[in-house]
């Protein structure tokens, strides 16, 4: 079991945070573009819709690299003082996030490139679920940092 996240794991964690923020900001544009294509109006996928599609594929690739590193290098043990129930919630939240980071783009690819219109709702619902897990994750990180006093944020800081 490793003592700390590696440099590359930390860089990938924050790169995915930035990419995901963009995914939610430009998701309406891809929704509009998809609707215009599905109803065979003039093809009007603009820059933002393209960013959603290729930014989402980048999330998929980085998530697979992260999963590979997670399985090969591992992750540090949760802090000793963390109650067992929170350890369990954190573990499930992390794996849930990883699963969604793979599943959401795959469903998106099915919608956009496969023309499976019906999967659009699933894609959106999974996107909402990911937001819930991210909210839980951030709340957990802040609870650790400021209530339990474990200085957990240092784990995801370069050079800490
Ligand atoms: C898009 C938003 C985010 C996603 C998808 C995300 C995802 C993840 C995942 C999957 C892990 C587990 C890594 C592993 O053990 O393999 C993790 C760890 C971590 N994240 Fe995030 N994260 C996000 C935002 C944040 C933010 C905003 C913070 C800071 C407030 C944060 C702080 C941390 C910390 C401190 C860890 C290490 C936790 C530990 O070792 O127990 N994350 N993150
Ligand atoms: C983790 C990455 C992704 C996230 C978080 C995400 C998130 C979202 C969200 C929240 C929506 C709903 C937008 C709305 O209606 O307001 C959406 C729509 C859409 N996304 Fe993604 N997306 C991701 C990756 C992808 C990828 C890789 C593709 C295609 C290759 C894609 C294609 C689409 C399409 C076509 C829609 C419109 C679906 C419809 O209106 O029925 N997404 N996305």
The backbone outline, from C-alpha atoms, is elongated
| Arithmetic mean pLDDT | 93
* Count of domains: 1
Number of distinct helices: 5
Category from helices, strands and their pairing: mainly alpha
Topology as a string of helices (H) and strands (E): HHHHH
Query: How many DSSP E strands?
Result: 0
Percent helix, as a range, is: over 70%
Largest sheet: none
Name the hetero compounds present: protoporphyrin IX containing FE
The value of Rg in angstroms is 18 Å
First and last CA, distance: 19 Å
Low-confidence sequence ranges: none
The share of residues in extended strands comes to: under 5%
Task: List the SSEs and their pairings.
Layout: H1 7-25, H2 27-38, H3 47-72, H4 84-112, H5 119-148
Brief summary of the model shown:
The protein is mainly α and 160 residues long.
What does this structure look like?
This protein is mainly α. It has one domain. 72% of the residues lie in helices and 0% in strands. The protein contains five helices and no strands. The protein is elongated, with a radius of gyration of 18 Å. Bound molecules: protoporphyrin IX containing FE (HEM) (2 copies). The site of one protoporphyrin IX containing FE (HEM) has 25 residues, from helix 1, helix 2, helix 3, helix 4 and helix 5. The site of one protoporphyrin IX containing FE has 25 residues, from helix 1, helix 2, helix 3, helix 4 and helix 5.
């Amino acid at each position: 079991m490793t003592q700390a996240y590696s440099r590359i794991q930390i860089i990938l964690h924050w790169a995915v945070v930035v990419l995901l923020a963009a995914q939610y900001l430009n998701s309406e544009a891809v929704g509009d573009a998809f609707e215009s294509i599905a109803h065979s109006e003039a093809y009007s996928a603009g820059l933002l819709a393209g960013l959603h599609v290729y930014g989402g594929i980048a999330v998929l690739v980085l998530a697979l690299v992260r999963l590979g590193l997670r399985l090969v290098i591992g992750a540090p043990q949760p802090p000793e003082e963390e109650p067992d129930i929170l350890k369990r919630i954190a573990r499930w939240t992390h794996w849930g996030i990883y699963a969604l980071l793979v599943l959401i783009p795959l469903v998106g690819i099915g919608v956009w490139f496969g023309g499976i219109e019906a999967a659009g709702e699933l894609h959106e619902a999974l996107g909402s679920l990911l937001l819930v897990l991210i909210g839980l994750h951030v709340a957990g990180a802040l609870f650790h940092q400021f209530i339990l006093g474990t200085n957990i944020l240092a784990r995801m800081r370069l050079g800490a």
